Amino acid sequence: MHPGRLAMTARLCEELGLFALPRVVVVEPREADDDELAGVHTRDYIAEVRRVSEDPAFPAPERGLGTEDDPAFAGMHEASARIAGGSLDAADAILAGRAQHAVNFAGGMHHAAADRASGFCIYNDAALAIRRLLDGGLSRVVYIDTDAHHGDGTQSIFWNDPRVLTISLHESGLTLFPGTGFAHEIGGPDALGSAVNVALPARTGDAGWLRAFHAIVPPLVEAFEPEAIVSQHGCDSHALDPLTNLRTSVDAQREAALTISRLAARHCDDRWLATGGGGYDVVRVVPRAWTHLVGIAAGHPVPLRTKTPGAWRDYVADAYPERLAPGETPPETMGDDADIWWRSWEVGFNPNDAVDRAVMATRKEVFPLHGLDPWFD
């Protein structure tokens, strides 16, 4: 979670001219106040975050504060509240019609629960944005999470809310933190089918990952008829990521973002709020993946064969030499030159394929609850 990954992303967006596009506005985020944070978090938890932030020597591990994943540090509340404020401002801009699309690539803190920090996440900005959209008059929101880790915090916050459909495509909890997100997790008693989980096997790769994404996400979005999409674009599914095992490419992650953009245009009057998330190869993966996200949201997708600007490569090498291995240089192109061909679900289901079994497990659990056939869309 090194903050340099955000600086490198912003600099790459700037060097490629994305921030200067006529329809793009860059807004400095503010800190969300306690009343706003209480939209999804308990007052006791917010007070505890504030206390630990002021005195990190006395953590609260029972709240997830001061653990290996969420170490206590001075200013923790302010930094986390600023991330939350960015996503809340994005939601407000969409509600007011000032923006069709909004991106907060510092956000996507999807492990934070209502009363506990987890997995590097203190305040769940994505959930706060969803709540703001609902409070602002929208009746249905789809949340799409493509992080390699299960979006457990966001799922738990909306577990029994039929207005929110949470879809998480992630590495199976059998091999990766947080150990949740299996197909049978489908929502609370008043919202059955509102939680959708695709638990993919390790080493799935681009073809399987995109096959699973397209077999699950578009039909459910169409059936749910949302009024906005909030998406989390953790790029830690990449083959170079040191914490995960899904082995996708920047090219595949870009393809998923393009599809989400099209779904927003087709199903919810083009209202789309995108966040970042996980991503731990902070030089080779994160800046390119989230710059593609910004370009797509801005209506100016960056071609995969685009050269990364020399000024950006110099900046990374000068500012973050410790993030490069001896003799390593920052990536020279915006893509991985990967083959992202994927086999459509409509051509058939292979019960001997672990990815297909994961997809079918999810479809069997939730598709009938949305009036869909688990075998055919």
TrEMBL record:
UniProt keyword terms in alphabetical order: Acetoin catabolism
Pathway in which this enzyme or protein is active: Ketone degradation; acetoin degradation
Residue span(s) of domain Histone deacetylase: 2-294
Stored InterPro entries: AcuC, HDACs, His_deacetylse_dom, His_deacetylse_dom_sf, Ureohydrolase_dom_sf
Keyword NADP: no
Xref: Pfam families: Hist_deacetyl
Superkingdom, taxonomy of origin: Bacteria
The keyword Membrane is assigned to this record: no
Family of the protein in this entry: Belongs to the histone deacetylase family.
PANTHER family in the record: HISTONE DEACETYLASE HDAC1, HISTONE DEACETYLASE HDAC1-RELATED
Protein name in the entry: Acetoin utilization protein AcuC
Protein species of origin: Sinomonas terricola
